[in-house]
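Mods, move this if it's the wrong board.
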Amino acid sequence: MLHTQEGFDAIVLTGALAEKGMASFADSLKPADTAAIRAFIIARANEMKNAPPLGAPPGAATGNQHEQ
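Not the wrong board. Structure tokens:
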């Protein structure tokens, strides 16, 4: 559901997954808050995806050969 802000908000604000234990946070969060949270999650996921594998020696390639 990270692919769209609308999907993320459906879960976080409207409780689309309430039957699975994910309650609505509409009482505490505004749409601007969920946009910032989603942006943070995506940024962290991209950092982790581009990080060298655990245990790789310092300076090891990240797998993206086009970066300089």
